Amino acid sequence: MDYSKSGNPKTGGRKPRHAEHNAPGSRKNPFGQRPDKAELVARLKAAAEKKKDA
Questions:
Q1: DSSP state of 22
Q2: Portion of the chain with pLDDT greater than 70, in percent
Q3: Are the C-beta atoms of residues 24 and 33 closer than 8 Å to each other?
Q4: Residue 37, exposed/middle/buried by CB under 10 A (0-12, 13-18, 19+)?
Q5: Of the candidates 6, 34, 48, 53, which lies 20 to 30 Å from 28 by C-alpha distance?
Q6: CA gyration radius for the chain?
């Protein structure tokens, strides 16, 4: 007898329970509008300077 086919079907185990509100490609964050790395580095450097001064 093939016991692997008995019982209830397994549900999606590693599937997220909800969609992120700001996932890339969604209405709030459409594709093509991701900030480039230079802006990120500039923001991080400004935050580091502000933290160092304080």
A1: T
A2: 98
A3: no
A4: exposed
A5: 48
A6: 23
